[in-house]
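Cast an eye over my tokenised protein here and flag anything odd:

===
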Amino acid sequence: MTKGIHNYSEIGKLNKVLLHRLGDEIEGLVPSNFERLLFDDIPYLKIAREEHDRFANLLRENGVEVVYYVDETARALSDTKIREEFIRKVIRESDIHSQSVREAIQEYLSKMPVHDMVAKVIAGIRKEDIEGVETNSLADYITSDYPYYMDPMPNLYFTRDPGACVGNGISIHHMSTPARRREALLLEYMTRYNKEFAPEGTPLWYEYGHEYSIEGGDVLVLSKDVVAIGLSQRTTVAAIERFAENMLEKSSFRKILVFDIPKKRAFMHLDTVFTMVDYDKFTIHPEIEGPLRMYEITLGRDGKAHFSCMQDQLVNILKKELGLPAVELIRCGGDDHMAAQREQWNDGSNTLAIAPGVVVTYERNYVTNALLDKKGIKVLTIPSSEISRGRGGPRCMSCPVNREDL
């Protein structure tokens, strides 16, 4: 069993990863709540689970310890007082206005075995689950046709976003949207009370209660010295500044690079358009190839953050910042404009490196996969007819906890 958080690169051999196996929360998706729950399609749960299990098994076959959100959160909640506190907090975060409904949910969840309770919080609590609840709330009256008291968390299988293990510490995120905010609450309890996951003294680079949004798809550990963060649709400049100041003051990292990327859904996070696959190779969406505006944050001798701005081709920036003689950018879809659009939609740039030059990708992105293979990258593919409907790739679906140093 791999213990402790240790993550000083994007490509070091992956020892331990945190996943979430899709559950009944996916069955809560219907067209009428797509906007509310951030989906634009409905995965078929049976096949999506089979595809996700293939992903997990592929990682195990390559020596990776796989742990799951429900199991690790349940371990954190073994103490009754901590479990009751968690239930109160998750109710408070669920936009429930009626005191009688809050009390009924508290009682309903408290009676469950802890593992079932965590799974139910993720799956959502339907009104039909709890009988005889009277409410005098105008808000509840207005939403009486809505089937849930507590919304499901269908986005949780993208475990990259609620937090990021960076160096020997962890960043627990304030998620950008209400639909995803409670996901990070699970991670907070996992970090605070599950010492197998996060041993005593594990540093926190960002905390759940911080008010500015940041998400893990925007955090890339480029080297033992440099962390990249996307200034994106979901990650704010105020959150980046707080994260950077904590990291630079309390860790061995010496520099934060801020990628200013387009603020739109197709570029939702930095890792949807840019991932590292080897020491000197990266997959990219052609639109960010350059010129690109980037900001550099360092810590001065005065102990204060110092900022600078650069604008150059991405390849030049990476060579300079990582001290490499050459860098190769592998375009999603290659030079075929149609393939680039199609495979970017299916997260062709969102690769998960499990060792230098070894990546997991979706098999459907065959143009990009062939290019990676031609460049000497070992490509391990997984089926994705259903899991890809959530608009996230293998990197999105994984939170690396422990990697070997390069």
Summary: The mean pLDDT is 93. The chain has twelve helices and 19 strands. Residues 45-61 form the longest helix (17 residues).
